[in-house]
Amino acid sequence: MNFRLHIIVLLLVCISHNAMGQIFIPLPQSDTIPGNHTLMPLNRNLYNAWDKELNELDNSFHTGFKPYLQSDVNKTVGREWGLLTDPTLKQRLFQGHLITVQKSGEYAFTLDPAIDFSIGKDLNNGRDLFTNTRGFRLTGNIGEQFSFATEYYENQAILPGYIDQFVRDSSVVPGQGRARRFKDDGWDYAMASAYISYKPSKYFDFQFGHGKHFIGDGYRSLLISDNAFNYPYLRINTTVWKIKYTNLWSQYLDIRERTSFSTGFPKKYSSIHYLSYDISRRWQVGLFEAIVWQAADSVAQRGFELQYLNPVIFYHPVQFSLGSPDNSLIGMNGKYKLSNYSHFYGQLVIDDFNFSEFKKGNGFYQQKYGLQFGFKKYFRLGKVFRNSFFQTEYNQVQPYTYAHKEIMQNYAHHNQALAHPLGANFRESVSYLSLRPPIRHKSSGNFRMYHYRFKLELKFMYAVYGADSLGSHFGKNIYISDIKIIGFPKTEGVSLGQGVKTNLTYKDVRLSYLINPRINLNFEVIFSDRILSSEFETKHSSFISIGLKTNLSNHYYDF
Asked: 2, 11, 23, 266: which could join 18 in a potential S-S bond, CB 3.0 to 4.6 Å?
């Protein structure tokens, strides 16, 4: 504990020393940022701060594909968050960036710390927990068309028991990459991301980098989510009229076994199309398709399939023409706005569907699909909590969805699912309540001192899934080949939740104080409780932690 406190104190002392020593570069008297085409960090708290305005009836903002382009958000909400001019130390710590360099209308660069200094206690076994994360975030805007960002995190942690077991089994910390041992019972892991962003016109923008994506308006996504580790990608957005069309090409890794020392882990690729259309002020619908193929097998080195570079095409005809065994998915994402303060949303994903067998009602295994339904409402609670919201959603995914005969072509990356952290063969309900007092401010020049920074968040998740037993493949683990299904390929009698019935309950309470909204620096107190039960065992995990952290990404530990 003393070690972590020393780090925090040392960081604050260094910042203060630098400020008093006039190391910061003086800023010109302007807060104008050239075209800010950076991507908003994928963190739900950051997005919830903008979500109400972006979902108002008169706004036609396409919310289905994340991360958003910051310039698109600024244009929609009618304001831009500029840089502070000649900031004081107090402004840098509580409102601005640590280091800024800019010239009005030409360039702007920012550098900030990325930290997570947390300590806690596992209440079931008395184990001391901690996270020690040090890193940085650098962003840049050059001219009106070019932006970039990069982040790096170095971590050591002692994790709660069930997460520690997940790392032992998968060799990865959830969503944060491969881990190696740190001392006796900890883990050491690192994560980096970076991209360049180019917007040559109002119709097109391009991003090339290493990161994550999320499709949907919910807490979970059944199409693609930020559950797994970062990956290389190329993204093209085309916005015309009421349509936004996104192409995403990505490279994933299967890290179960290294191919060779020279080539590293086996690679696979995906090509994703997402077409979002504003049907009316209330309705927004998105169509999704994806194809996953492996770079090589035991017969040949295939590499990247050039025909999948075509940005405007349906993939099934291409697959047929290639005689392709590739894994394809299609889906839909939709949203209906009830008012400026509430909306329904939902998703459908289809991995495989045999209509003739479906009509027979015999439970044929090829009925691979998933459904999501959700509701979100913004509200006021008395005179204090005027900036609050409630969200609830239901998810279900049929057995064997996202899996494939060739394990290398499953819908996964870095030993984790690319969609839902539970994989497949489950039902789940997630509810989320966020109570936030209004953010009022007093202005002094172009510096705003925010008040009412406290936030209380409550989350409840309940899931039922069918686990495997005695070497049987019941459909939850997407890293098992379809060939392992009992009776394959004529398997019938498949039902949702088949296998060992397992109940999962997860409760989470968070009280946080926002120190710096610019980098989402928070002081947090967290209590989490997880119960996993089946006819064979019951596992209970409760832990509490406090920490100082820049929340710039999502970590999914509710599985």
From this structure: 23
Please name the residue that has the structure tokens 């807060």: 31
What's the rounded Cα separation, in Å, for the pair 504 and 506?
A: 7
Structural domain total, the chain: 1
Sign, CA torsion 425/284/219/460: negative
The token duo for 187 is: 């883990």
The answer to whether the Cα torsion of 165, 171, 175, 180 is positive or negative is positive
What single-letter DSSP state applies at residue 260? B
DSSP, collapsed to helix, strand or coil, labels residue 199 as coil
Taking the C-alpha atoms of residue 129 and residue 159, their distance in angstroms, rounded to an integer, is 6
Residue 485 has which token pair? 């299904």
Higher-pLDDT residue of 246 and 11 is 246
Q: Which domain holds residue 511?
A: 41-61+118-135+160-550
Of 395, 51, 345, nearest in space to 217 by CA: 345
Mean pLDDT taken over the chain: 88
Is 90 part of any domain?
A: no
Where b means 16+ CB within 10 Å and e means fewer, 118-131 reads: bbbbbbeeebebbb
Distance CA 536, CA 467 (A): 11
The model carries a pTM of 0.91
Q: For residues 368 and 215, is the Cβ–Cβ distance under 8 A?
A: no
pLDDT band per the 50, 70, 90 thresholds, residue 354: confident
DSSP code of residue 454: E
**Tokens linked to 14:** 């260094």
